[in-house]
Amino acid sequence: MHQRVLKVLEFDKVKEQLLEHASSSLGREKVNQLVPSTYFHEVVQLQEETDEAVKVLRLKGNVPLGGIFDIRPHTKRAAIGGSLSPHELIQVASTVHASRQLKRFIEDLNEETNDLPILAKYVERIIVLAELEEAIKHAIDESGEVLDGASETLRSLRQQLRTKEARVRERLESMIRSSNAQKMLSDAIVTIRNDRFVIPVKQEYRTYYGGIIHDQSSSGQTLFIEPQAIVQLNNDLQATRVKEQQEIERILHELSQKVGEYSGELETIVLVLAELDFMFAKARYSSKIKASKPLMNNEGRISLIKARHPLIPIDEVVPNDISLGKDFSTIVITGPNTGGKTVTLKTVGLCTLMAQSGLQIPALDGSEMAVFGSVYADIGDEQSIEQSLSTFSSHMVNIVDILNKVDFNSLVLFDELGAGTDPQEGAALAISILDEVYKRGAKVIATTHYPELKVYGYNREGVINASVEFDIETLSPTYKLLIGVPGRSNAFEISKRLGLDEKVINNARSYVGADSSQVEKMIASLESSRRQTEADLEEANDLLKQAEKLHKDLQKQMIAFYEYKDSLYEKAEEEARAIAEKAKKEAEEIIRELRKMRIEKHAEVKEHELIEAKRRLEEAAPEKRASSSGNKFKDKKHVFRPGDEVKVLSFNQKGHLVERISDSEWLVQIGILKMKVEESDMEFINSPKPADTKPIATVKGKDFHVSLELDLRGERYEDALLKVEKYIDNALLAGYPRVSIIHGKGTGALRQGVQEYLNNHRAVKKIRFGEAGEGGTGVTVVEFK
């Protein structure tokens, strides 16, 4: 497909919108490479892929596509023996985890529906590398820090580091607490310079502590000195740090070797994830523009039902029915330049390019699109400034190029054909060009304001006229395409509405030929008939909708009637049973008394007669009827699904279902808590509607939990600020309105640094110290915007 046509029809703008729905750089790369295919079987396959992705979104509303990275450079470097950084390794583990999640998601859904053959085939190619993922996550945390547990050696070295740091701090703190320290030190704090612990000493006391000067303040009044007494301790600490770094590098190299071993499998995972992300980006875009899957053919037939231009907002665009290639292969849209004609051309062209790219089209179900070998467009605003050509010349350059290439498998779009020159010559040229393209067997849509082409549409087989409706009352086009009705000039009517003298208009009418006048009257009559037919059809549709509503209401009333009837029967049976039970009890009492009388007074009452009387009483009690069909709706049990809103009865709290744990247990999210709950302890409230917008992609796993407070006590100043930055990001991602940061009271340096950082953070609304019961000035409470 020629690049100029893609630009003229604004296919690049469709791709820009599509880019917004990709979840990873892999998907965005696929979108950037997207071009329409000209192979029928490939287009059918692409449409099937998109349709399956649309089914998944319709059923689940979301797809786990978070945490995907383009790890191909990492795997290539690891394969040739290079070492990866902690962050690169975490990206590998995250991508492996995402592939595993997506594989399980698609396989589970396919088991339920048995209707996702293409997606199932894609995820079959994903190799589960749980061992590699576990090895990386065991050694490195989410923020890229190598964990103590990565190896026994590292655990031991880290323990030694903590012990030696504590010893150095202890020695320095004893120095700054001494009686002389207050006058000799600028501030009673221990700080770090060049990875070594130092204290701030006033310039005049520099020789008192001896040792090494590492830094000085901007004024020169304070020197940061490593006292002689702790030089050896700092040396030991530094040596241990070097060993720690060597062990970290060994661990990273070992993990990188494992990544290199699986480089082939990882390459396959990346390729599959790129395809899946691209497919679901197309599906989300389809949902956004309310598109549908077109039926594809290889015979040049287009049948668009209520088609919309995808780049015009849905609430502004006017949908149109457009057909081409069955009864006629050329549409000539005539009429004055009132807008709407070019939009129609671009709608057909853009829908063709979208369909051939595997995108669903903004039209109703049942629309049909053809796969063309070439699409050519000569659309109005393409005047060549560089070549200093006139409008006519610019058009003609494009048309010559089109006529050199066009064949039976082409779609050609001409905008204002023959414009920019003498009307008679322009019209004659337009007719000749249309004849030539028609002979080649191409499908053509052309717009023109030449009245001569109305006759062309009537006199040529396979050609039909069309126009864009114009509302005389509002003096504006309705943008409704009328196939079969040629456009007519509204000059006299518009002039009259705008106040031009009646005598001038009548004089003008006298100059119009009789034939032309009759044609205009015929067109006006056609438009009037069409409007009446549309009004009648709309009225018939309204009546049909009313009848359907009435039918549904009657069905509901019948169901309610039968349920009420059954309830009355049940009530009557209960009352009858109660009366019978009462009678039975009374009869048994009488029988007991008769037996007693027979024994005591030798009355002639036989035992079998008593038994028979009792049996008749029991038979008199009514049996409970089986519940009728009207009651089947009452006891129907709700089938719980992830995302359902429920009420947990034992806590009297509302929550949302996260996932099923067993046959009878669910994981329920109540506020920020997740807990296991029995189905019997839940009451269904409602199911969520599928979301319309794209999910936020996140590298966090589903079990990731963010604490409501961050404890910085004992942390070094720089490390503490890094932790605060990461913690604030995680808290915002978790959606917390408020968190607490525990920094302790101490010297106040850490507290001041934390509060300065928070005051400058764009997401922080305000900060305050904790209340008496919250930790006082040792805690900063942060509220988010």
From TrEMBL:
Keywords per UniProt: ATP-binding, Coiled coil, DNA-binding, Endonuclease, Hydrolase, Nuclease, Nucleotide-binding, RNA-binding, rRNA-binding
CDD domains to which the protein is assigned, alphabetical: ABC_MutS2 (cd03280)
Positions of the Smr domain: 710-785
Classification via SMART domains: MUTSac, MUTSd, SMR
Keyword flag rRNA-binding: yes
GO molecular function: ATP binding; ATP hydrolysis activity; ATP-dependent DNA damage sensor activity; endonuclease activity; mismatched DNA binding; ribosomal large subunit binding; rRNA binding
Chain positions recorded as ATP binding sites: G335, P336, N337, T338, G339, G340, K341, T342
EC number: 3.1.-.-, 3.6.4.-
GO biological process entries: mismatch repair; negative regulation of DNA recombination; rescue of stalled ribosome
Subunit details: Homodimer. Binds to stalled ribosomes, contacting rRNA.
Name of this protein: Endonuclease MutS2
Gene: mutS2
